[in-house]
């Protein structure tokens, strides 16, 4: 019996099932890849992360926000990646080493064909993963459907609430935020009584998992928490959180989700200092810490960073940027074919902007992720259609 | 509720079955039914349908509510609430709220103080003094937000008009603000007390205008930066997408930009000018002021606009009222607001017939919120779909406090603020302007259930700091003896309103409790308490 059959059987017998969370958990095969999706909510300004420093138009469009062309003697200038692109120097210490090791790739002109420019509409659309205008199930996420196809790939969301990406799986996917104190407060007897009240209800599995997971997590994290945060129960930055995530992804889980907010920079977003710079630095350090904490497991890990849309190419009147369209996705991992800018691209000039406003989307996220998933787990065409209906998976050979 | 005894009995049974928690949502296969509870048709003048209705009408039951309902019956009880007839707080709680500086201080003075403190910190030279100043500033900033959240939680728990209290939270969430952005924390209490609360049961249009002109919203969604020549479309977009029409209702990006032009010049006064009673622009025609709000014609785009298919002549402030009128009279607005209300009160997927009836009332009454609520709460469709809403953390916390303390004031409300944050639904803490989700599925993940059980224990055990100071000294804040473990099992409230409808599974759990603390924890954790 594989995990999927096992879970289906367990779900069928949910009313009678006395299986605890840990009893249900099967060890993942040693060679199964690890995948983490990092969702930047708010539409991050990709143009000040992956800087189109070869474009004069960029400098004309952003008189106060542009990041200077790479210059050896200027620490605030962009870090050159190739003739066209550079990195915001705030991630020089964290992400640039991964780029140099060819473990980091960027996919510009990426995103969706949803043109609402609404955060919520577009986030939901991305998390559902269905073609625009042909949605069939508003409570089914693409990671949940992916999870349904993968045997021996335990899934988890490192969030307070189960994200739409993971909803509608037909089997319970646990969620736990590792920002706060994840300790357990009930003993075995109390936990059994509490979950007993929910037996035979829709929340049977979720309540049982909810009582069991903190126990497992506290045991797992005990050493890490003492070491990395000197026993502090709360993670004070993203790096502290990703180190905890790494512990669970190394030992127990293979498919994960985490989100990071605070990217909606309409006003005074700054360039190499300020709000956006702080956020990017925190994010970069978190990802570098994740790679570090995974150790050898980084070699079979892939991380994708995405956001609902990019922002207006030109800065607005308030030293900020408004909702845009195309964005830049990141792909990181020990075996990622990185150190390159992947996917279809256009010259960055006024003629190529969408509606004279923002980046067009040349690399649909459903096609790109579909191609990536095919390579990671050897999924066939029919399976990919389950994850991303009507998508045309595009193999960018990222892994 | 007048009904013949026989009819009442069968009605009660039907509703009891409908009320059983955790059954399937529409469109999903039904799981096995829970064991049926002992059926008691009527308890001390209240039928089970009355109890189910009351659990929906307010955040949660307390003795005072049951007494009033027994006296008035459903319709008069509801009409009293809709008219704001009993919008009272216990004197001690009212005094507690008034004592918060964010409530008791006029806004201009509060804002001026905020700016002064920030400037003082900025001007402090680097060194140990600056480090201390930084700490003090952070504490002050946190205090502003915590006071505002405490004020709202105290209202929610102790407010006599529970329908209104739910509506205040609903609108705070619908017109969501995020305290941690700039000076929004300074404005949060004002936003709840003087922007949302007076309009919570009034005309929707007035509510939209009040939020539009509120310092909290002007700052949060950046309209303070939306001026002629340097525009910002953030608020214009969310005003239609989140507050009134809903995405996909037919407006276009061009409409967003036209509305943005209409809104240019709507911003804030410098606080010190407002404090002096200000002569800001007095002599100039077209200036409109209200508290800190100012419409400055010098910053307005006076060109004509084409908005939602209509021409709005460039005229200044009047354009804003014209645009808002146009928006709230769209059929999409009536439907969108009705849908959201029904999702919050009735079901994740409310019956379309119910939403349509509410939307008709909305249009007929020109957006009278009380009338729409009346349609909803007295409808047969709503009564038929009870028991499927899993309480969000705010409802859980407030209902647990109402049950546990039954009107007894708690001198220290700060722990409540932190508990709500840890359960993932902090007041003024939603970073995105869409507000917390209204559907049950958003609050039933394993991680959330785990937190819910944790806080059922914190409240049920009485081991918390609600009656102690926050300085760790354990100093008592009141001369009354602290209540210790709440006696839920022995309360009339439990006997009358909870015991008659408990499921066997929950009875079993309660029977296994080894202490009153455990008993309370199990009850507050139970599906019977958490669904409504």
TrEMBL record, chain A:
<keyword id="KW-0732">Signal</keyword>
<dbReference type="InterPro" id="IPR006311">
    <property type="entry name" value="TAT_signal"/>
</dbReference>
<protein>
    <submittedName>
        <fullName>DUF1501 domain-containing protein</fullName>
    </submittedName>
</protein>
<dbReference type="Pfam" id="PF07394">
    <property type="entry name" value="DUF1501"/>
</dbReference>
<feature type="signal peptide">
    <location>
        <begin position="1"/>
        <end position="27"/>
    </location>
</feature>
<dbReference type="InterPro" id="IPR010869">
    <property type="entry name" value="DUF1501"/>
</dbReference>
TrEMBL record, chain B:
<dbReference type="InterPro" id="IPR014917">
    <property type="entry name" value="DUF1800"/>
</dbReference>
<feature type="signal peptide">
    <location>
        <begin position="1"/>
        <end position="24"/>
    </location>
</feature>
<dbReference type="Pfam" id="PF08811">
    <property type="entry name" value="DUF1800"/>
</dbReference>
<protein>
    <submittedName>
        <fullName>DUF1800 domain-containing protein</fullName>
    </submittedName>
</protein>
<keyword id="KW-0732">Signal</keyword>
């Amino acid at each position: 019996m594989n995990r999927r059959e096992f879970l289906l059987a367990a779900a069928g017998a949910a009313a009678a099932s006395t299986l605890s969370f840990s009893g249900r958990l099967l060890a993942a095969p040693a060679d199964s890849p690890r995948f983490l999706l990092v969702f930047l909510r708010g539409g991050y300004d990709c143009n000040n992360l992956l800087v189109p420093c070869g474009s004069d138009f960029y400098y004309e469009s952003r008189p106060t926000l542009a990041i200077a062309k790479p210059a050896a003697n200027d620490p605030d200038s962009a870090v050159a990646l190739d003739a066209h692109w550079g990195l915001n120097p705030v991630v020089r210490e964290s992400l640039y080493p991964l780029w140099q090791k060819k473990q980091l790739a960027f996919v510009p002109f990426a995103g969706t064909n949803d043109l609402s420019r609404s955060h919520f509409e577009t986030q939901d659309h991305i998390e559902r993963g269905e073609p625009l205008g042909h949605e069939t199930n508003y409570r089914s996420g693409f990671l949940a459907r992916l999870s349904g196809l993968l045997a021996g790939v335990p899934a988890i969301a490192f969030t307070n609430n189960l994200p739409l990406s993971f909803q509608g799986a037909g089997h319970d996917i646990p969620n736990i935020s590792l920002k706060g104190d994840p300790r357990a407060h009930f003993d075995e007897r109390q936990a059994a009584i509490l979950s007993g009240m929910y037996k035979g209800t829709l929340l049977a599995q979720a309540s049982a998992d909810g009582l069991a997971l903190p126990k497992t997590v506290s045991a797992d994290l005990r050493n890490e928490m003492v070491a990395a945060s000197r026993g502090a129960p709360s993670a004070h930055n993203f790096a502290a959180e990703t180190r905890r995530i790494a512990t669970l992804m190394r030992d127990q889980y293979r498919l994960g989700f985490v989100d990071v907010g605070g990217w909606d920079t309409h006003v005074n977003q700054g360039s190499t200092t300020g709000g956006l710079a702080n956020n990017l630095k925190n994010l970069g350090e978190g990802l570098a810490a994740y790679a570090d904490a995974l150790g050898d497991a980084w070699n079979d890990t892939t991380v994708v960073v995405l956001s609902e849309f990019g922002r207006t190419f030109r800065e607005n009147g308030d030293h900020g940027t408004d909702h845009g369209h195309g964005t830049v996705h990141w792909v990181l991992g020990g075996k990622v074919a990185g150190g390159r800018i992947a996917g279809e691209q256009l010259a960055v000039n006024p003629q190529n902007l969408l509606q004279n406003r923002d980046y067009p989307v040349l690399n649909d996220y459903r096609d790109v992720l579909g191609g990536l998933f095919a390579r990671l787990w050897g999924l066939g065409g029919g399976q990919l259609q389950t994850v991303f209906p009507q998508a045309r998976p595009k193999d960018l050979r990222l892994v | 509720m007048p009904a013949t005894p026989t009819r009442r009995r069968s009605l009660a049974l039907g509703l009891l079955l409908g009320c059983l928690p955790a059954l399937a949502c529409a469109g999903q296969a039904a799981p096995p039914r829970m064991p049926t509870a002992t059926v008691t048709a009527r308890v001390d003048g209240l039928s089970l349908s009355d109890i189910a209705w009351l659990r929906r009408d307010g955040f949660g039951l307390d003795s005072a509510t049951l007494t009033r309902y027994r006296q008035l019956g459903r319709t008069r009880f509801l009409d009293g609430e809709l008219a704001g007839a009993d919008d009272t707080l216990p004197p001690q709680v009212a005094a507690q709220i008034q004592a918060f500086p964010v409530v008791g201080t006029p806004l201009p003075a509060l804002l001026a103080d905020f700016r002064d403190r920030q400037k003082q910190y900025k001007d402090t030279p680097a060194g140990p003094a600056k480090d201390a100043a930084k700490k003090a500033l952070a504490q002050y900033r946190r205090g502003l937000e915590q006071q505002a959240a405490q004020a709202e939680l105290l209202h929610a728990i102790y407010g006599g008009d529970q329908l209104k209290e739910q509506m205040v939270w609903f609108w705070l969430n619908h017109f969501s603000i995020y305290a941690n952005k700039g000076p929004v924390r300074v404005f949060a209490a004002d936003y709840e007390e003087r922007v949302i609360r007076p309009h919570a049961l009034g005309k929707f249009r007035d509510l939209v205008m009040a939020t539009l002109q509120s310092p909290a919203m002007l700052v949060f969604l950046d309209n303070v930066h939306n001026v002629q020549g340097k525009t910002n479309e953030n608020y214009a977009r969310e005003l239609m997408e989140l507050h009134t029409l809903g995405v996909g209702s037919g407006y276009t990006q061009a409409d967003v930009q036209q509305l943005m032009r209409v809104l240019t010049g709507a911003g804030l006064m410098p606080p010190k000018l407002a404090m002096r009673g200000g002569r800001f622009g007095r002599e100039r025609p077209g200036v409109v002021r209200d508290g800190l709000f100012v419409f400055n014609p010098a910053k307005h785009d006076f060109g004509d606009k084409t908005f939602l298919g209509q021409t709005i002549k460039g005229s200044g402030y009047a354009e804003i009222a014209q645009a808002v009128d146009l928006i709230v009279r769209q059929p999409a607005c009536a439907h969108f607001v009705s849908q959201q209300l029904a999702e919050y009160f009735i079901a994740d997927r409310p019956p379309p017939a119910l939403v349509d009836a509410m939307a008709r009332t909305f249009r007929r009454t020109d957006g009278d919120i009380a009338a729409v609520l009346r349609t909803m709460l007295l409808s047969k469709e709503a009564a038929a779909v009870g028991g499927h809403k899993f309480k969000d953390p705010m409802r859980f916390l407030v209902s647990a406090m109402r049950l546990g303390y039954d009107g007894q004031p708690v001198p220290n409300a700060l722990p409540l603020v932190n508990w709500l944050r840890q359960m993932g639904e902090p007041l003024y803490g939603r970073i995105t302007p869409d507000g917390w989700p209204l559907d049950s599925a958003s609050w039933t993940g394993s991680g959330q259930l785990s937190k819910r059980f944790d806080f059922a224990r914190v409240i049920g055990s009485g081991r918390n700091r609600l009656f102690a100071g926050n300085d760790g000294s354990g100093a008592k804040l009141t001369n009354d003896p602290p209540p210790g473990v709440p006696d839920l099992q022995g309360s009339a409230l439990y006997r009358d309103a909870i015991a008659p409808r408990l499921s066997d599974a929950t009875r079993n759990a309660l029977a296994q409790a080894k202490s009153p603390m455990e008993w309370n924890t199990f009850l507050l954790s139970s599906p019977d308490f958490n669904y409504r």
